Amino acid sequence: MEGICCSSSSSSKAQFKATISLLTHHCFSTSKFCPVSFVPVFWRSKRDCKRRTTAASLRTTAFMVEEAIEKPTSREAMPKIDKSGRFCSPRAARELALLICYAACLEGSDPIRLFEKRMNIRRESGYEFDKASLLEYNHMSFGGPPVKVETVEEADELVRCDEKQSAIEAEVLSAPPKLVYSKLLLRFTRKLLVAIVDRWNNHVLVIDKIAPPNWKNEPAGRILELCILHLAMSEIAVLGTRHPIVINEAVDLAKRFCDGAAPRIINGCLRTFVKDFTMAGGGEALEAKQQIAVEV
């Protein structure tokens, strides 16, 4: 009997984009659709002077989070939920920052304001968030090659599992952030978004040099992948998180939310970025700033 080919690829990418659509429709006032260009000109005026004074704070918090990641325990052993019943893993903060950045690119809007608007959104009357979904939510759910099953029943079971996971992801990703993420993670998410905006224009030029031609020729179809690059590059350059951690996290995000060769390409792009960044003297500067953060 011939096996039935059933895709084992996670529905995370489709669910991620569906959640963005849900959020922008219900939670945010959507401006003109702008799929490719997000140029944060607003950030250059009165906020320029504030960026310098907050730089130390950005890196100190990032360093604290990074140190928590590097404790001598396995990633699997790290608690996912804190005592308040909210996400406390830095992976969750990076996912949220990616979601907001992606939505901002689709809208052509300010990701910081988008984040704050979502933070302050009023809950609908009678809304109740199922906190049990946080325990079932899987940050390490990656796609994979198609799976062969022998019976229709097995195929149906795989579909049911996939639909259940999609429902959990929809519940979590569309819920008010204050119900899902700890205060520390929400602060870290905001710092990631500030870093992205701060370096966006510079990193657009960098990505133009290191990204493959097909990504640059069709940027509207690679918004999610480009957002992952911006997120990772900004965390390295602005927050000073050690690049092996950031690259691993970016590759995992690509495995989770992107298709095809995206994880491999993102890994290569970020390694090229780190090499060029270090050769330009950025590595030594970040190491010195990390030492200052420890002393503080």
From TrEMBL:
Gene Ontology BP terms: DNA-templated transcription termination; transcription antitermination
Gene Ontology terms: cellular component: chloroplast
Keyword annotations from UniProtKB, A to Z: RNA-binding, Transcription, Transcription antitermination, Transcription regulation
Protein name: NusB/RsmB/TIM44 domain-containing protein
Superkingdom of the organism of origin: Eukaryota
Keyword NADP: no
Pfam families membership: NusB
Entry similarity comment: Belongs to the NusB family.
Ranges of residues in domain NusB/RsmB/TIM44: 187-275
GO molecular function, one term: RNA binding
Cited InterPro entries: NusB-like_sf (IPR035926), NusB_fam (IPR011605), NusB_RsmB_TIM44 (IPR006027)
The keyword Transmembrane helix is annotated on this UniProt entry: no
